[in-house]
Amino acid sequence: QTAEAAKIKNEMDKRINEAATANPKDKNVQSKQLSIYASSEQYEKAAKLFDEMNAKGQITTNSEYEAGYISYYNWPEHEKQVIAIINEGLTKKVIPENDKVYQILGHSYYMANNTAGAIEAWSKGALLSKDGEQNLLLAQLLSEENEYTKSKEQAQQALSKGVKNKGEAYLILALIESEFGLNNRTAMIEALNQAAKYPESK
Predict the structure, then answer these.
(1) In whole angstroms, how far apart are CA 65 and each of 43, 130, 169, 177, 202?
(2) pLDDT one-digit tens code per residue, 176-198
């Protein structure tokens, strides 16, 4: 069944490629080709096609923008392109604001060594997220920036939302409360005791 599905997919790819070659100015055909490249993890091809379409003003839908930034996100060392694409789509109000978009944007800023950008993106994502994951990312990053009070607040929010990796959140709290941060030994010990309850922190 898997082999048959792959065969059908390859045939579809072939037909779309042939149609795109025959109709290079047909936006709908180009858009389908972009979607196929991205969904089949041919990220470099998808990124190149996205750029070609965007240069001609043919990127007009959220799915097209998503194909572009997801492709660059999965292509190492292309964080700047991810940032540019997402910000363009958000500015045009084509990309809807949601936690997923801001998580990717924040991570791209972080990998590009733009701490301020990462904090801004994850802060927006944290407000929209219900799982606490971006609060935890913020807590870690803010602690690295010695913003201990803000980091503590984000770690506590992550826990209140039921973040999956609770042990990590408590370890961050322990670091924040240590002599290197807020210097509250009692709170540090309590956080370490809580962290010990979770296997990922051992």
Answers:
(1) 13, 24, 33, 42, 41
(2) 999 999 999 999 999 999 999 99
